[in-house]
Amino acid sequence: MKFDxxxxxxxxxxxxxxxxxxxxxxxxxxxxxxxTYAYEQHEAVRNAVYxxxxxxxxxxxxxxxxELDAARRAPGVLAIVTAANAGKLAKGDFNTARLLGGPAIQxxxxxxxxxxxxxxxxxxxxxxxxxxxxxRAAGAFDLTAAKQSAVVSERDQPDxxxxxxxxxxxxxxxxxxxxxxxxxxxxxxxxxxxxxAAWDGDKLTLWTSNQMIAWGRGDVAKTLGIPKENVRLVSPxxxxxxxxxxFVRADAVLAALxxxxxxxxxxxxxxxPLIANNTTHRPATIQRIRxxxxxxxxxxxxxxxxxxxxxxxxxxxxxxxxxxxxxxxANRMIxxxxxxxxxxxxxxxxxxxxxxxxxxxEIAMDxxxxxxxxxxxxxxxxxxxxxxxxxxxxxxxxxxxxxxLRTGAERFGWSKRNPKHGAVRDGRWLVGxxxxxxxxxxxxxxxxxxxxxxxxxxxxxxxxxTDIGTGSYTIIGQTAAEVxxxxxxxxxxxxxxxDFPVSAGSGGQWGANSSTAGVYAxxxxxxxxxxxxxxxxxxxxxxxxGKVSVQGRSVALAKAAESGEVVxxxxxxxxxxAKKFQQSTFAAHFVEVGVDIATGESRIRRMLxxxxxxRILNPKQARSQVIGAMTMGIGxxxxxxxxxxxxxxxxxxxxxxxxEVAVHADVPHQEVIFLDxxxxxxxPMKAKGVGExxxxxxxxxxxxxxxxxxxxxxxxxxxxxxKVLAHLPVMA
Length: 732
Known about the structure:
Number of helices: 17
Strand order of the largest sheet: 4-6-2-14-11-12-13
Radius of gyration: 27 Å
């Protein structure tokens, strides 16, 4: 099905099942522990053994020697895989560094060996007997030091110039020129990277925790040098990814190599201390923002420059992208620069680009409002735009940012905010309110599905779409139920298998809208086949209550399959509507904080997010996504930072004891409001993504609330006690 004109009325608009706050259909499996994650495929894989990954002990250099004899003689050891005996391996399309290093080392904890043994304990003990001698080389580990040598990355973000930014900024009566820092961050998902590999002749099956099955299948095949049709990836449940599992990592490739070497299925899970340095992370940024405005508050010049780093061949953290679209301003300058660093690979983490970009931009907007003596909400409303500022001829398909801001301000009680810093006390707590806008582009991807109707009236959906805890099973089931006119309990959803049609996968906030649109396309094709089998006009037929009806004649849906199941397969392919209309999602975040006047401890008191993200397919699940994102925003504001050892080139706090995410005690009352909208330019579902939007702007809202509470402006995340304590007002 081609989607190249705005959607008209279609079966989804009935909203009998879609749009309802239904419980997750996979929920009972998860709460009873019967959902099988990658490392738990005990029934599918018998007689499996264990692999333990050895990570490089240097950040850059070469392996001079590797003593394996003691490890080979250790109890239970079946095989040891290294670059020397693994055979020729290519680098996949979606990873920057090789997943098995040696003799050259590209980053700290790059996998250099896998020890395979009968038990996990034997594999780990034997790995401890391996002795590796390195020749350490000098590396670049400090973004600030490497900033001057950073270069433009035309592949990721060419420079943008609209109007005369320099002239307009210099002439502006009110100016802001400030620099902000965001740190390296870890995905810190609950389930580690884990895989089980089994060979059947020259065919490989990988049960792995992976968000993008088709990408992963292609990369495994390319890395191992085998035909793609000889690789099967299976990933029915994923215990969190946040972008860290968009691409196959060392666990998958080494499990496959270990299984081939040992002649047995092999299980590999990366231990928590290996994840931060061996896999990917969100890179640190340095961002300079300049805003010029009239005395009345109209932005006349806006400039955003960002620096980030990655390994050679890597890409930027595109922290400037939201600034291109979020606010009006005739004169604009956008620049992103990439520095070469020898730290572990930088890559996508929830809302890549916009999350750190808004951490800076939305503080800058708050600072500018203060300079102007304006309310921060009204300043943003004044500078709203309904067209792409770089291409005014291209309107937004929908843009309800102003409604988000006004609704949020009213619900949160923003009018009670005291703009004077440090003016509100609650005992020993200084109390303040802050807000920020949220923005994330609406991305869509081709997505396919296969739908089966059986004689018992059940509809089965098969697609390689994944569920990373987002509720894919349920919204896909709701889509099929709506289109085919059956109750949700008559729909079976099968996901995460490369034997199924290729879907959009989970990432970039494109998964829900794209994958359900693909299921819609397959179901519409099935409706046509069913109607033809029943001798009915598909264009006039209604599908409801398990029946197909036309002009008073009604036939049971199941009758179409009484002589055998009916199967349809299709995909949604998107045309150029995204070129004609800027498609984006918007939010307004409001936060109240308390800051201890004696210790500088910041505590979130309450939070509100108002989101405009097209049709909400399941409000209960969408709310869960947004409050989870808000929680991640708390961590981003107050605690999350991968601390870099700038001498040796690794992340020091590489476990969940040292990398501090927000926990229960950090999370206050959270409220989420979804505006009632449906975007007919987005897809037949008229939906958009929401899972990443919920994070965008949250950390800045917290930073702005801390400033309102204390008068302290922190431009370097996370906002830890030491950045506040010395500047607190004298206790009365």
